[in-house]
Automatic annotation (TrEMBL):
<feature type="region of interest" description="Disordered">
    <location>
        <begin position="1"/>
        <end position="37"/>
    </location>
</feature>
<feature type="region of interest" description="Disordered">
    <location>
        <begin position="419"/>
        <end position="455"/>
    </location>
</feature>
<dbReference type="InterPro" id="IPR003126">
    <property type="entry name" value="Znf_UBR"/>
</dbReference>
<feature type="zinc finger region" description="UBR-type">
    <location>
        <begin position="61"/>
        <end position="139"/>
    </location>
</feature>
<feature type="region of interest" description="Disordered">
    <location>
        <begin position="311"/>
        <end position="386"/>
    </location>
</feature>
<feature type="domain" description="UBR-type">
    <location>
        <begin position="61"/>
        <end position="139"/>
    </location>
</feature>
<dbReference type="InterPro" id="IPR047506">
    <property type="entry name" value="UBR7-like_UBR-box"/>
</dbReference>
<feature type="compositionally biased region" description="Basic and acidic residues">
    <location>
        <begin position="514"/>
        <end position="525"/>
    </location>
</feature>
<keyword id="KW-0863">Zinc-finger</keyword>
<dbReference type="GO" id="GO:0008270">
    <property type="term" value="F:zinc ion binding"/>
</dbReference>
<dbReference type="GO" id="GO:0005737">
    <property type="term" value="C:cytoplasm"/>
</dbReference>
<protein>
    <submittedName>
        <fullName>Protein mlo2</fullName>
    </submittedName>
</protein>
<dbReference type="GO" id="GO:0061630">
    <property type="term" value="F:ubiquitin protein ligase activity"/>
</dbReference>
<feature type="region of interest" description="Disordered">
    <location>
        <begin position="226"/>
        <end position="270"/>
    </location>
</feature>
<feature type="compositionally biased region" description="Polar residues">
    <location>
        <begin position="26"/>
        <end position="37"/>
    </location>
</feature>
<feature type="compositionally biased region" description="Low complexity">
    <location>
        <begin position="8"/>
        <end position="20"/>
    </location>
</feature>
<dbReference type="Pfam" id="PF02207">
    <property type="entry name" value="zf-UBR"/>
</dbReference>
Length: 540
């Protein structure tokens, strides 16, 4: 026998277990890095539940369709009901409630339309395909929850372009992740069919006729004007000037990311009004034009600024617009205000048609109320074009309620009293507000609640005998796992996924696990004598 070959073979045989052991150590080390303690896992689960509760603060257990028409948050599903590419083509619009947007359309492309009045959820109706059922309502055919489809929708629902993901008079597609600024929702006197907007959302720039990107265009015009002032000559470029310009550009980009653009010229400051009526709704109901500039109503804001913008001074600006239920992000791209501050009540005061804010009004204490419209000046001249109205919080008390004017108000309850918006019950510890009682009577096992609460609720719903058997099985498993966990606790080692899998395989008595365990013992040199013990054990 060649000694060199023998030594090489022995060396290879000696190195092989070391390599396998090293690889196994590295594998366990890598898995340990990806492992986590039970405390870490519980903390992560609690954080996930807290994040989910913050993102979805309301109960998502019940569809609002059985409640009938409500003023509620509405969502349009573009996955189940995609709009046509041509806006002029007919479209069978549909909207769903808050709960259905999560439970039935949670993985779809949704458009958040915010609040719509007198709206009934369309989920599970013929406005959606049968393949998109409602998972929350009770199916009358099976008497089980879910699988509801092809029901008749409410004939009283009104739809506008918002359900196509189109907003404002500019009819733009809305992308909340790219667009900036604030949009305002019209109080909505008229529907889309009657010439109004149907509670549409408006860019401030579009309300005054400057367009959605008015501030970006204004900044571009300013740059052109500055270039014109240099008479076309090229400025001297120095290294310091170039560095300063880069710093200014970087600061402008950061300001653009952090701040919203100011209101456009002619648009009132946010704190001066509570709601507004767009020019479409005002034109559809011209009787309300008489209130322009009277108590409760700011001076008219014309669509075509033109002469009106020249006659009126700039209004107060608010570069930091706070969000509310009447606001929505828009697609303005700059955030630097150049207009001075001035109360909106002083706008357009040079026009003879605009009355002062202290216009006299008749109190309605007489047995026969006097019509307030008699004391009001005529509306602005039609030649000025359409205009929008901005309303202060007390505008309702200044509307005339005489026998002649009251019939004009009754079709619009929002003009008589402030509307209430339906909100689902607030979730409690991740569960629906109506799940609180069920946590005491054990009537609910699915839906909200923490993992512990849902497990406790499920245990209460189980038959007593099965519950006792389950507790005994849990106790037996606990007794089996305690020694396994104890050895890692004493050695300060992290339990890897492979350790857990191997231990449970051993408990189950898997043939593969037993075979792998035997091979591992053989590789690691169990029994001494290089395997002679195994041959002697055969006894055959």
């Amino acid at each position: 026998m060649d000694p060199s070959v023998t030594q090489s073979s022995v060396a290879d045989s000696a190195d092989a277990p070391v390599s396998r052991s090293k690889a196994r150590t590295e594998s366990i080390s890598q898995k340990s890095d990806d492992s986590q303690t039970a405390a870490d896992f519980i903390r992560d689960q609690m954080q996930l539940e807290a994040d989910a509760l913050e993102a979805l603060p309301y109960s998502i257990e019940h569809c609002t369709k059985p409640l009938g028409p409500l003023r509620q948050s509405v969502f349009a599903c573009l996955t189940c009901n995609p709009p046509p590419a041509n806006p002029s083509d007919p479209y069978n619009a549909a909207g769903v409630c808050y709960a259905c947007s999560v439970q039935c359309h949670g993985e779809h492309t949704l458009v958040e339309i915010f609040t719509k009045r007198n709206f009934t959820c369309d989920c599970g109706t013929t406005r959606f395909p049968a393949s998109s059922p409602c998972n929350l309502r009770l199916n009358p055919e099976t008497n089980t929850k879910g699988g509801v489809h092809s029901e008749e929708p409410s004939p009283n629902n009104k739809y506008n372009q918002n359900f196509r993901n189109r907003f404002c008079g500019c009819e733009c597609d809305y992308d909340p992740f790219q667009q900036k600024g604030t949009m305002f929702q019209c109080l909505g006197l008229g529907t889309h069919e009657t010439g109004g907007c149907g509670e549409d959302w408006w860019h401030p720039g579009c309300v005054v006729g400057l367009g959605p990107k008015w501030f970006e265009n204004m900044a571009t015009d300013k740059v052109k004007a500055e270039a014109k002032d240099t008479n076309g000559s090229l400025p001297t470029i120095t290294e310091d000037a170039e560095t300063a310009e880069q710093n200014n550009n970087q600061g402008a980009e950061e300001a653009e990311d952090d701040n919203d653009p100011p209101p456009p010229p002619g648009f009132p400051a946010e704190e001066e009004f509570e709601s507004f009526l767009c020019y479409k709704c005002v034109e559809a109901h011209p009787w309300i034009k008489r209130y322009a500039g009277t108590p409760g109503f700011l001076a008219p804001v014309f669509l075509k600024q033109g002469d009106a913008a020249e006659e009126s001074a700039p209004v107060a600006t608010n570069g930091d617009l706070n969000g509310s239920s009447k606001k929505r992000k828009a697609e303005d791209d700059e955030a630097d205000s150049q207009t001075s501050k001035r109360p909106k009540s002083e706008v357009d005061t040079t026009e003879p048609a605009e009355p002062p804010l202290s216009a006299p009004t008749e109190p309605s204490t007489d047995p026969t109320p006097t019509c307030k419209l008699i004391t009001l000046p005529p509306p602005p001249q039609p030649s000025r074009g359409p205009f929008s109205l901005f309303l202060t919080p007390d505008f309702r008390t200044n509307l005339c309620h005489c026998p002649s004017c009251f019939p004009l108000l009754t079709p619009h309850p929002q003009l008589l009293e402030e509307e209430e918006t339906y909100e689902p019950p607030v979730s409690s510890a991740g569960g629906g507000g109506d799940d609180h009682a069920s946590q005491h009577d054990g009537s609910s096992t699915n839906g909200g609640g923490s993992l512990y609460d849902r497990g406790e609720s499920a245990l209460r719903n189980v038959d007593r005998v099965r519950a006792i058997e389950g507790v005994m099985a849990y106790q037996h498993l606990k007794d089996k796992l305690m020694p396994f966990f104890q050895q890692f606790a004493e050695s300060k080692q992290v339990i890897s996924a492979e350790d857990v899998k191997g231990y449970f395989a051993k408990l189950r008595g898997d043939e593969e696990a037993i075979r792998e365990a035997g091979e591992r013992v053989e590789r690691e040199g169990g029994g001494g004598g290089g395997g002679d013990g195994r041959q002697e054990e055969s006894g055959y």
